[in-house]
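Key result, reporting period 2: structure in, sequence out.
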């Protein structure tokens, strides 16, 4: 009887080359020659009957077939490695590669400053971190985990809530020197409010306020509108452009340095949830498990 999976070594080499998009870097990582990587890729393409890479003299890129094979093969190899590690009792040393998507707010102000601590604790885990506010496709793009704000967007995903992040209204001392501090929603509407346009819908993001004992979603005027990166609102406010709403974990250093002042604290008290999301069909690998546990531990000790 012929062995069905005698080619697993070639598949592992292909996955490494697909992640690095370089035969030479894959060879260095695996401890083989670039020629050995090239031969493994050629054998895999001949076995499958498709081209997996587009090759030029300067670079390689995955074909559509190559992306599909990489997504599924990487998941299969990860699952195989996890179960073998479990049976050998080697789960104390998680390893592998994780592809993470994180928005700019949480990325720059919570995750990236603490990645060095995770890397120090788990040096055998490689990380690829996409910091952007775009929508992603877990399957097509091969992401293992995403950190997102708000409600669970897709029933095919599992959400692990990390924290409820508190919100406030902020302006610079320079702005407040030249403009009266509003005392009501009506007065706030007449101020220079810095609005944000959500890239997913094109709508202006509401401000989450608490007026008395009532929660209110209030749409600011859009005379000054920021698109794509909400951190632009923070930069504008810190430089005297107007009033904006943001999370305390973002504005705290600016408040402490005197560049921003929290106003209308009587309207505060609202929060928004941040969660770690991953596909239901993907087993929680040991590497992904310790990363999620790191996120949960981090927000418990620093929020």
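The corresponding designed sequence is given below.
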């Amino acid at each position: 009887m012929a062995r069905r999976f005698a080619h697993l070594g070639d598949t592992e080499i292909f996955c490494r080359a697909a992640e690095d998009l370089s035969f030479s870097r894959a060879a260095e990582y695996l401890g083989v020659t670039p020629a050995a990587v090239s031969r493994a890729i050629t054998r895999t393409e001949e076995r499958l009957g498709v081209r997996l890479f587009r090759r030029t003299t300067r670079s390689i890129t995955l074909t559509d077939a190559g992306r599909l094979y990489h997504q599924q093969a990487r998941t299969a190899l990860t699952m195989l490695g996890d179960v073998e590690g479990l049976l050998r009792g080697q789960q104390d040393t998680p390893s592998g590669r994780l592809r993470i998507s994180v928005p700019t707010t949480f990325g720059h102000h919570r995750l990236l400053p603490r990645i060095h601590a995770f890397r120090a604790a788990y040096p055998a885990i490689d990380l690829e971190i996409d910091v952007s506010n775009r929508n992603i496709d877990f399957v097509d793009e091969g992401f293992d985990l995403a950190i997102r704000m708000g409600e669970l967007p897709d029933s095919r995903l599992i959400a692990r809530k990390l924290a409820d992040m508190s919100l406030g209204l902020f302006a610079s001392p320079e702005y407040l020197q030249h403009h009266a501090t509003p005392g009501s929603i009506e007065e706030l509407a007449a101020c220079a409010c810095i609005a944000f346009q959500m890239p997913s819908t094109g709508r202006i993001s509401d401000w989450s306020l608490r007026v008395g004992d009532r929660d209110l979603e209030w749409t600011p005027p859009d005379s000054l509108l920021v698109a794509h990166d909400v951190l632009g609102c923070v930069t504008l406010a810190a430089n005297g452009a107007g009033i904006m709403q943001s999370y305390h974990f973002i504005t705290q250093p600016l408040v402490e340095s005197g560049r921003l002042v929290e106003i209308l604290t009587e309207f505060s008290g609202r929060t928004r949830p941040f969660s770690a999301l991953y596909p239901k069909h993907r087993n929680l690998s040991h590497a992904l498990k310790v990363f999620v546990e790191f996120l949960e531990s981090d927000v418990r000790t620093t929020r």
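Residues 8-72 form a domain with the Arc Repressor Mutant, subunit A fold (CATH 1.10.10.10). The chain has three domains: 8-72, 96-163+273-302, 166-270. This case is discussed further under Risks and Mitigation.
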